[in-house]
Write a structure and sequence with these properties.
Elements: E1 5-7, E2 10-12, H1 33-36, E3 41-45, E4 50-55, E5 67-73, E6 76-85, H2 95-106, E7 129-131, E8 134-141, E9 144-151, H3 155-159, H4 167-181, E10 185-188, E11 191-194, H5 201-210, E12 215-217, E13 225-228, E14 235-243, E15 248-249, E16 260-269
Antiparallel strand pairs: 1-2, 3-4, 4-5, 5-6, 6-9, 7-8, 8-9, 10-11, 11-16, 12-13, 13-14, 14-15, 14-16
Length: 274
């Protein structure tokens, strides 16, 4: 493999045989940010061996698009890809972007069969495609739709992280957050209850969860607030709000003059598509 030369934070791939798979490179050095964008990078140490790096998430609209991410095993790049919020968006990347993704990771382009007459593909991609020592595939997990190229040597290891249960971690996040917020709460069957509440309570919760790298879902109905644990975890934190009469508020509901009587925080496990 020809040596890769890095200039500043961007990586220049000097030949068709260049690849970043298995190298100890930062996410911007891979060149993926120029394809999909990755601002305000955040890092999550998923396990002692595995690290996840991605752009700071915002709920996506067609104007915002997706962002890049990487998974590292023992400090070396093992998965590279693109992700978007799984909230009924239709932000499918064009084949040209997938082709560039495959070339960056493996040195050769994406399989031509992924290309359609419109020049776009459907996410998730149906099936796995071998590309020079790697697997090009997609999955839905952790509230994200993802297309990625993964080193075959680590494919099973990393895919097993998609949709994993993190209930103990979520419990720790909730308790640390509630203590930091100064809100009055009690542990109840199935979770935690905040009572009484004020007009500032929602904002306080939002700040403490955001500070712990949780991604907020702004399009999730049936819940007043929902937060996903990072790095494709299948565990989420749901916050339900109730008015004085016991009626459950949904995201976007206006709070009536009696305000919120109490809020319940629960830990949920969501389905994962492998």
């Amino acid at each position: 493999m020809r040596k890769i030369a890095a200039f500043g934070s961007a990586l220049l791939l000097s030949s068709a045989s260049a690849q970043v798979m298995g190298q100890a490179l930062s996410l911007p050095q891979t060149g993926i940010c120029e394809v999909f964008g990755c601002k305000n990078l955040k890092t999550v140490q998923v396990t002692p061996r595995i690290k996840y790096v991605a752009g700071e998430r915002q709920e996506l609209t067609p104007e915002l698009g997706g962002s890049a991410f990487g998974m590292y095993v023992d400090g070396r790049l093992a998965m590279l890809g693109w992700q978007e919020g799984d909230n009924f968006d239709t932000l499918n990347p064009k084949f040209g972007a997938l082709n560039r993704l495959a070339k960056l990771f493996t040195g050769i382009g994406a399989p031509p069969m992924l290309k359609t007459a419109l020049g776009e593909v459907s996410i998730p991609i149906q099936g796995n495609y071998l590309v020079r020592g790697a697997v090009m595939h997609s999955f839905i997990g952790g509230g994200l739709r993802t297309v990625a190229v993964t080193d075959q040597r680590h494919y099973a290891l990393l895919r097993n992280l998609v949709g994993r249960g993190d209930a103990p971690a979520a419990q720790g996040i909730i308790e640390r957050g509630l203590r930091a917020s100064g809100l009055s709460y009690q542990k109840v069957s199935g979770g935690y209850r905040i009572s009484p509440t004020t007009a500032a309570t929602v904002g306080q919760l939002d700040r403490v969860f955001a500070a712990q790298n949780l991604r907020k879902c702004t399009l999730c109905d049936r819940h007043f607030l929902r937060y996903f644990l990072p790095a494709f975890s299948g565990t989420q934190i749901d916050v339900n709000a109730y008015v004085a009469k016991g009626q459950t508020l949904q995201m976007g509901d206006r709070i009536d003059r009696d305000g919120i009587a109490y809020m319940d925080i629960t830990i949920e496990k969501v389905p994962s598509w492998k």
